[in-house]
């Protein structure tokens, strides 16, 4: 019988644990666990396979850094990158939000539809987002958009506070092809642009689907349990002084290799919250 790892998966099939194991010596094949297949190699992640390839951040050399807020981070360089990623993510949440054009549209219906398409394309497919802004429709968006066009908000939504409205709407937007990352981006965009009063109440990790944010959260927060991840994410956001929504994009950026250029004013308080320098 296979052994389950701390991420609630068979150890032989866990992409996170497989990266933590030392590489096999050259000239000798890696040992294979009896009764199990060798760990599968993951070549990227995203809400729609085949449309995006992402490079994951190689682990920095452990240097004694420890912080109970991010128990999976054991190197100062990784913690510094996380601080920078959170600062970048926090900045994009400020009005008018990640897509300023949404706030410039007077018709709420038209603004909502465009926000839906931009979120569906996602920030990791900028060329598709450019096409959307030019009036094109992503070729894979039609089923989700058709479901969205039939969707209606709950009748008592006006009585809810922004966080409850976010949570309930997030759950009700679970259309085929419109995954966790797209739903989160969509609601964050509407809230930041002032189209609707929305504020993320949680990270809404999707441990069964492993989108980029969830994978990074598992690595940084060192758990595969959804409830524990949510508690640790909330504690991290509070200590870093950022809204919980900043962890969505921040964690995804942290787990990549692209350079980050945060504003110094935002970075200072986050670094302090992560006990850096």
Concise account of the structure shown:
Helices cover 46% and strands 0% of the residues. It is mostly helical. It is globular, with a radius of gyration of 20 Å.
Structural summary, described in words:
The protein has helices at residues 15-20, 76-93, 100-103, 108-121, 126-133, 142-150, 162-172, 180-193, 212-221, 226-240, 246-254, 264-273. The protein has 277 residues and is mostly helical. The N and C termini lie far apart (46 Å).
Gross morphology: globular
As a percent range, the share of helical residues equals 40-55%
Structural class call reads: mainly alpha
Number of helices: 12
Q: Give the SSE order as H and E letters.
A: HHHHHHHHHHHH
Oligomeric state of the chains present here:
single chain
User: Roughly how many Å apart are the termini?
Assistant: 46 Å
| DSSP strand count | 0
Low-pLDDT parts are 23-54
Q: Give a quick account of the main beta sheet: strands, pairing sense, barrel closure.
A: none
The chain-level mean pLDDT equals 85
The share of residues in extended strands comes to under 5%
CA-based gyration radius: 20 Å
Could you name the key traits of this structure?
277 residues, mainly alpha, 12 helices, 0% strand
Question: How do the strands and helices of this protein lay out in sequence?
Answer:
Blueprint (H helix, E strand, L loop, with lengths): L14 H6 L55 H18 L6 H4 L4 H14 L4 H8 L8 H9 L11 H11 L7 H14 L18 H10 L4 H15 L5 H9 L9 H10 L4
